[in-house]
Amino acid sequence: MTDQELSKEVLDSAYKVHTALGPGLLESAYQACLSFELVNKGLKVEAEKPLPLIYNEVKLDCGYRIDLLVEDRLIIELKSVDELAPIHLSQVLTYLKLSKKRFGLLINFNVKSLKNGIKRVVNGY
Known about the structure:
By secondary structure, this protein is α+β, with helices and mostly antiparallel strands. The protein has a single domain (about 5-120), classed as Trna Endonuclease, Chain: A, domain 1. Helices cover about 40% and strands about 30% of the residues. It is built from three helices and seven strands; from the N terminus they run H-H-E-E-E-E-E-H-E-E. The protein has helices at about 5-20, 25-40, 85-100; strands at about 45-50, 55, 60, 65-70, 75-80, 105-110, 120. It has a five-stranded mixed sheet with strand order 1-4-5-6-7, with helices on both faces. Helix 1 packs across helix 2. The radius of gyration is 14 Å and the shape is globular.
């Protein structure tokens, strides 16, 4: 499955969850439902995946967690906020760099139309 095909599968599932639940719930509710949908599609999903920080060749557990890691290559950061802020995008970019992954999706479920809550993020290394 290509990166584009994987993104499409995730976004189709996100739209399904958003259509069923609408905006206004906690991030954890959307995370559980999206994870459920993706697993039902046969995708490998890791929720709340620990992400260590390597500093001076020392692995430090600083409490960073990837909301969803799909097929060990797509990072999904979920939000349920009034509006995405630049810090949310920075968070995804940092997770991509720390994990050495190439691409991610930032999805804010607290919007009337989900297409207004989706940002694709690519790590240029």
